[in-house]
Design brief:
Elements (H helix, E strand, L loop, with lengths): L1 H26 L6 H21 L2 E2 L5 E2 L4 H9 L3 H14 L7 H26 L4 H23 L4 H102 L6 H33 L7 E4 L3 H15 L3 E6 L6 E4 L1 H17 L5 E13 L2 E12 L21 H7 L5 H11 L3 E6 L5 E8 L1
Parallel strand pairs: 4-6
Antiparallel strand pairs: 1-2, 3-5, 6-7, 7-9, 8-9
């Protein structure tokens, strides 16, 4: 009967210790790294075994009966790592020496060390078997209790006959029952810890999702603002486009009607003048239609780039023929410079390169009231990461109205100009720079901008060599 009292007291102490450890774990160790958790568990299990021995039943002066093997059972189920279980078994056995070094203490060290190796084998089995946790627990409890009886029978200081007939019939059932009871209690603690962990992880997940939703909300708000601005710009684009289309169409219709009604009375000079106006109006109309078609092709991914040999030395002459008259009519100085180190021939799409340069020069002349417009063709080496890349650069510089710094990005977007009053004052649809930027990208290059308001602009087309 005395054994049962001591075993129940051992169980109560272990439950109290487990409860305190549970509180400490929840508020401190639960946030520690995995290695710290394992070390803490090993120290706690060894300490629990020592407490069990300290309050154990002393049959004789040096013989102690207790449940010091129960923490080893729980460790087998909680951390089924063979090396950890061996350390707990040997460590718990060595604590027996703190009550005095004698034959019974040595047997206690040997008993717990053997149980540590047995539990290491059980841990190896637990990690690989697919049986339920309940079955794993029952097998572990039965095996450890039976091995404890066998060890005491073989190595114990109490005569085997006395132990088997008088002590073991009480201690074995009591050990089995209390081990199962303690395992169930610890299982409840473990489930609570798992639930708490799940709650913490769920809160962290909810917090992360809330933050992500907030970020997405900001992105959606910005996107909605961009869509609203795009809708506004497209409305303004349609208004500008209707004006731009009507102007050349009205010229063509009115002059053709005038020629038709007054053909006999018109002089050859007047006929030539009217025909020239009709021709220029038709070209303006064709340019507008081409811009719209190019923009549609770029957005649909249908614009073809045909790379072939492009004679760079011919570009200055072709552009001079096209823009020198327009610059002279506005009283602007117009210059084109070709550096000596520029290769005579590059591999690109001649039509699209000239289209970009025409757009940039046309804008430069349009937005420059006085001063100069120039085209400078040069080469440049740029370091990109560990690589040096060579580029041919076309700098289009003017002394025009310039562009405010905050407008540098939006002017490359379709239907947008630096200021919506520009469309009414200077004309245009706001498509030229967007098309040019997309074409440069398709050619493997890019366009940069350096500009200050009222101090002119420099657009640079970079094409790879």
């Amino acid at each position: 009967m005395e054994y049962l009292k001591i075993f129940f007291m051992n169980t109560a102490l272990l439950i109290t210790l487990a409860y305190l450890a549970n509180l400490i774990y929840k508020h401190t160790i639960t946030y520690a790294p995995e290695r710290v958790k394992k070390v803490s568990w090993v120290l706690l299990a060894i300490f629990a075994g020592w407490i069990s021995s300290f309050f154990g039943y002393r049959l004789e002066e040096h013989v102690i009966f207790d449940l010091r093997f129960v923490p080893l059972i729980i460790s087998t189920l909680a951390y089924p790592h063979p090396f950890i279980l061996i350390i707990i078994g040997v460590g718990t056995g060595l604590t027996r020496l703190t009550f005095g070094i004698n034959e019974a203490a040595v047997v206690g060290v040997l008993n717990l060390s053997i149980l540590g190796f047995v539990c290491a084998g059980l841990g190896f089995w637990i990690r690989r078997t697919t049986t339920s946790m309940m079955n794993k627990g029952l097998v572990t409890i039965i095996v450890v209790n039976l091995m404890n009886v066998i060890n005491i029978t073989i190595f114990g200081v109490i005569p085997a006959r006395e132990y088997i007939t008088d002590i073991m019939p009480v201690t074995l059932p009591a050990g089995l029952g209390l081990s199962i009871l303690f395992a169930l209690i610890i299982r409840d603690f473990q489930l609570e810890l798992m639930r708490n962990g799940q709650v913490v992880r769920a809160n962290e997940l909810l917090s992360a999702q809330t933050e992500e939703l907030h970020k997405n909300k900001i992105v959606l708000e910005k996107r909605a603002e961009q869509l609203m601005m795009a809708s506004q710009y497209k409305s303004e684009f349609l208004a500008n486009m209707s004006h731009e289309l009507r102007t050349p169409l009205n010229s063509i219709i009115n002059l053709s009607q005038l020629i038709e009604e007054n053909e006999a009375s018109l002089t050859p000079e007047e006929m030539a003048e009217y025909a020239g106006i009709v021709h220029r109006s038709g070209e303006d109309l064709l340019t507008l239609i081409n811009d719209i078609l190019d923009m549609s092709k770029v957005e649909a991914g249908k614009l073809d780039i045909l790379k072939e040999d492009l004679n760079v030395s011919e570009i200055p002459e072709l552009l001079a023929m096209q823009f020198s008259v327009s610059a002279r009519q506005k009283g602007l100085e117009f210059n084109i410079a070709l550096h000596d180190d520029v290769p005579l021939v590059i591999h690109s799409d001649p039509q699209r390169v000239q289209q970009i340069l025409r757009n940039l020069l046309s804008n430069a002349i349009k937005f420059t009231v006085s001063g100069h417009v120039s085209l400078n063709i040069r080469t440049l080496e740029r370091k990109e990461g560990a690589l040096e890349r060579r580029w041919i650069v076309f700098d289009v510089e003017d002394s025009g109205i310039g562009i405010a710094a905050e407008k540098h990005d939006i002017i490359f977007e379709a239907f947008q100009q630096a200021d919506q009053t520009i469309g009414r004052k200077y004309g245009g649809t706001g498509l030229g720079l967007s098309i040019s930027n997309d074409l440069a990208r398709l050619l493997g290059g890019f366009i940069t901008l350096q500009s200050q308001e009222d101090k002119g602009s420099q657009f640079s087309l970079y094409l790879p060599l």
